Amino acid sequence: MSDWKTLKEVAEELGISKDLVKYHRKNLGLFQMEKVDGVYRISSSGIEEIRSRLRKESYDATFEEKVLRRLRMIEQQQELMYNLLLETLSERR
User: Fold this and answer.
1) Which residue ranges make up each domain of the chain?
2) C-alpha span between 42 and 14 (Å, rounded)
3) Distance, CA of 24 to CA of 8 (rounded, Å)
4) Cα 40 to Cα 24: distance, rounded to the nearest angstrom
5) Which of 1.10.1660, 1.25.40, 3.30.70, 1.10.4160 is the CATH number of 1-54?
6) What is each CA distance from 7 to 10, 23, 36, 45, 55, in whole angstroms?
7) Predicted confidence band at 60 (pLDDT cuts at 50, 70, 90)?
8) What is the band of 79 on the pLDDT scale with cuts at 50, 70, 90?
9) Across residues 21-27, what is the average pLDDT?
10) Which residues, including other chains, have CB under 8 Å from residue 6's CB and lie 6 or more apart?
11) What is the pTM of this model?
């Protein structure tokens, strides 16, 4: 059982908060997590799974900004198409 670690130990190893470990715990497989005497423990494969889901060091900080800008543009295009559709339908009446 030495390869199993508590949530606190996992948090310390990965340099993240215990709450973030709890969040990722929900996505682990049946054999990657256990609860013994009310204490959750995570296997080494579970720890690696959590590690793989964390934001990478090379994360581009402008990525979210780019995605949001593109989303706004798509929403504007959708609104324009909707208005054109309404206009076309009203002309047919």
Assistant:
1) 1-54, 60-93
2) 13
3) 13
4) 13
5) 1.10.1660
6) 5, 11, 12, 14, 19
7) low
8) very high
9) 92
10) 39, 40, 41, 42
11) 0.57
